[in-house]
Amino acid sequence: MTSALRIDLDAFAANLRHIRGEIAPSEHMLVVKDDAYGHGLVPIIQRAWTAGVRWFGAFDVQTGATVRATLGEDARIFVWLAGSDDEIRTAIDLRLDLGVGDRDLLHDVARIAREIAQPARVHLKIDTGLHRNGIRPEEWDAAAADAAALESTGAIGVVGVWSHLAEASDEEDDAASAQFIAAVEASERAGLRPSVRHLTASAAAFARPELRHDLVRIGAFAYGIRPAGGPDEGMLGIRPIATLSAPVIRIDDEGAHVALGALHGLPSTLAGRVVVASPSGPRALLRVDRLESVVERWPEALLGDEVTFYGEGAASATDLAEAFASIGEEIAVRISPLVSREYLGG
Ligand SMILES: *Cc1c(COP(=O)(O)O)cnc(C)c1O
Q1: What does the pLDDT look like over 194-216, one tens digit per residue?
Q2: Where does the Alanine racemase N-terminal domain lie (predicted)?
Q3: pLDDT of 16-59, one tens digit each?
Q4: Does 196 contact ligand 1 (Cβ within 6 A)?
Q5: pLDDT for res 49
């Protein structure tokens, strides 16, 4: 017996169905960066495709290429990190949709598209306040004019306008939304006809219907990860899809030693702060070492007993994250490939 991350693909599909109902008539782009938030890219996108998801937010070109190879030509795949000429060339060649938040990058994309005689599909990004890349509002008109000129040569097609919200407060998001709408209008005045406008991720897509536009980019909620300090899974209508467990490998006066440690991605800051699920109920997590952790003993503990750190029958990843002021995604993406992924359902 070894440590395992069990992923319930039926629960995943149920989350996807719920998201679709919640956000309709907008479409769902499933965000699959960081190996689908640690859940394993290929099984996740295959199930999502079967469940009707057609847009995938891959972040980097390599992930986008895997999605293309797995799902074929009909998948729409959005990447927003393509820096080098090689990456841009691959992205255009594979007909990935490219997020472009920089005028120089826009010209690079057009040049490479001409070189390989394949028009690039571009989503222009307006910086609505996060300052994390994106065309500044004061440069937007000029960038939109450049994009329209490049579009008229056939090198690029501007299919989208997008931005990313801070989701820190409604006021900030409202200001960002106003800036976003102004940018869409300016792009239309410049002669562009973007057909997909997208602004929101999980939290705002659920809480702020008026900000959804054509497409919402949802990662966390699809995997059943609720926001730290926010509404619970029941209120959101989602459920966690992953369960992280490991066996007891030694029992001594100190406690039950379990085969999951910091090297497997368990944050050592959790020691002394959370409880985990033993066969006879919740027990304190006492220590996290490199290769194992120590859990408060239960009277009838046996070697091979399974301890669950988060998921079915235990706390959620977000519950654990809250113990050290982090977020559930942070825990999920840290689980090392040393922990085997097992898929249920599907
Ligand atoms: C990660 C990410 C998302 C998804 O965010 P969630 O809160 O996990 O839904 C959406 N858009 C961008 C640009 C992202 O980087």
Answers
A1: 999 999 999 999 999 999 999 99
A2: 7-227
A3: 999 999 999 999 999 999 999 999 999 999 999 999 999 999 99
A4: no
A5: 98
Q: State which H helix or E strand residue 249 sits in.
A: strand 242-252
Terminal-residue alpha carbon distance, the chain: 24
Tokens of 60: 């980097």
Closest CA to 133 of 103, 159, 113: 103
Residue whose tokens read 């030694």? 250
DSSP conformational letter for 132: S
Q: Is the CB of 128 under 6 A from ligand 1?
A: no
- Tell which atom from ligand 1 comes closest to the C-alpha of 201: 9
pLDDT for 168: 83
Nearby residues of 68 by Cβ (< 8 Å), 6 or more positions away: 75, 77, 94, 95, 96
Contact 289, 260 (CB under 8 A): no
Mutating to test ligand 1, I would choose from 39, 63, 208, 217 the residue with most ligand atoms within 8 A of its C-beta, which is 217
Instruction: Report which of 58, 68, 199 is spatially closest to residue 127, judged by C-alpha positions.
Output: 199
Nearest alpha-carbon partner for 295 in 287, 279, 263, 306 = 287
For 226, which DSSP code?
A: P
Rounded Cα distance between 31 and 121, Å, is: 18
pLDDT tens by residue, 245-296 = 999 999 999 999 999 999 999 999 999 999 999 999 999 999 999 999 999 9
* Domains of the chain from N-terminus onward: 9-224 (3.20.20.10), 242-344 (2.40.37.10)
Q: How many angstroms separate the CA atoms of 105 and 134, rounded?
A: 11
Q: Is 76 in the pocket of ligand 1 (CB under 6 A)?
A: no
